[in-house]
Design a protein that fits this description.
alpha/beta; TIM Barrel; 13 strands; about 40% helix; globular; binds flavin mononucleotide
């Protein structure tokens, strides 16, 4: 389903070490530092990007890279970035089983008040035994995770809605009696869910504004987007879609393909294997990725070629109905500047991107 809206640009930020490739080739090991994240955020804002999304991780995936092993916590990260920026929207990524919704309602309202309502929430239901086992928390079965996430988001929305106070909620997951959380955000924050499975889509359709997805190929996107819209229609709701492409461009397509081959040649097989073992059970998000595609960009959509090729691929992404792309880069600072010079002018000429201030 093609969208008449323009494509919004965002960055899937390097708040974790080793983003975005599970590889030892051409890694910028210290991109995760806050100062780097702030420079990238300010540059993205200057270029008219609309969104910053972080990754939430509590430990890495071992191997030689310990992929994502160092990470900045995303609510505190968002607080600092929201104060450093003026117009870009900054999301936190929050593991539902680790935060009580009353606590999260206050964290979110605080971030909204600090930022003129530019904060948003990306919920993740959790999947890594390595992380949850470390904390002594048992991961629920796949569909049950999303039942809990649905309850979590429902509670948040109600705590943030003056018409719903005081809130009584009694479910298997939470007991809230005469619940209140003040202050409330002046505007309801945007809420995204990261995940693709039918369970994820059903929950997103009922409660969320954004479906943040992985897409293994451009060809797979129209069906994904259509399924998100069809699910949302059952609740008379609209859900927007975002993906996280990995643009890798060089002067010639073969140079770009060679660079992709080098990333894969140096993949960290142990970390990739650890990741796949955990995420496999019941997941829909990465089912159609090969191990090499995962290693290349951590489950992002690889866009490979010249600048013109990448611009054309982004045009096809837009045509598929995707509303926003949270871009990842090999070297975020260097490549965001190259993106501004090499690719953004092409996208503007195609009239497919929205780089106006929100
Ligand atoms: C775009 C995207 C971003 C994600 N970000 C995170 C994250 O930051 N932390 C995390 O633990 N899981 C993350 N996930 C994992 C999902 O939340 C989910 O647990 C996993 O994709 C399995 O979902 P599914 O089986 O419902 O498709 C992400 C998934 C996608 C598709």
């Amino acid at each position: 389903m093609a969208s008449s809206e323009k494509l919004q640009l965002g960055v899937f930020m390097p708040n974790c070490s080793n983003m975005p490739s599970i590889s030892t080739h051409a890694v910028v090991a210290d991109q995760w530092h806050y100062e780097n994240n702030e420079r990238i955020a300010l540059l993205a804002e200057r270029l008219g990007f609309r969104y910053l999304f972080p990754v939430s991780r509590w430990r890495g995936f071992g191997g030689t890279t310990n992929f994502l092993g160092i990470s900045l916590e995303t609510n505190t990260w968002a607080a600092a970035l929201l104060r450093a920026t003026r117009s870009i929207r900054v999301f936190s990524t929050v593991h539902v089983p680790l935060f009580h919704p009353v606590v999260m309602a206050k964290i979110g309202a605080t971030l909204a008040h600090m930022s003129g309502d530019r904060w948003g929430l990306n919920v993740v239901s959790g999947w890594s035994e390595r992380e949850f086992g470390m904390m002594g928390i048992t991961l629920a079965e796949h569909s049950r995770r999303y039942e809990r996430t649905g309850a979590f988001v429902d509670i948040l929305r109600k705590l943030w809605d003056p018409g719903q106070a005081p809130l009584d909620h009694h479910s298997e997951w939470y007991t809230i009696t005469a619940g209140v959380s003040l202050p409330r955000p002046a505007r309801m924050p945007e809420i995204a869910n990261a995940g693709v499975s039918a369970d994820a889509r059903a929950m997103t359709a009922e409660y969320c504004d954004w479906s943040f997805m992985s897409g293994a190929s451009i060809e797979a996107l129209p069906a994904l987007v259509n399924s998100v819209h069809a699910d949302a229609e059952r609740f008379q709701r609209k859900v927007r879609t975002a993906i996280f492409p990995f643009p890798l461009w060089r002067d010639s397509a073969s140079q770009a393909e060679d660079e992709l081959a080098r990333i894969i040649e140096h993949k960290d097989a142990e970390a990739t294997g650890n990741w796949l073992r955990d995420i496999g059970a019941g997941s829909g998000s990465f089912d159609t990725f090969t191990e090499n595609m995962l290693a290349a960009s951590g489950g992002g959509l690889n866009l490979i070629g010249t600048a013109e090729d990448v611009a054309e691929q982004l045009q096809a992404v837009h045509r598929s109905g995707v509303n926003a792309v949270m871009l990842t880069f090999q070297d975020y600072e260097r490549d965001l500047q190259r993106f501004a010079t090499d690719i953004l002018p092409l996208l503007k000429r195609m009239q497919i991107v929205d780089t106006s201030e929100a």
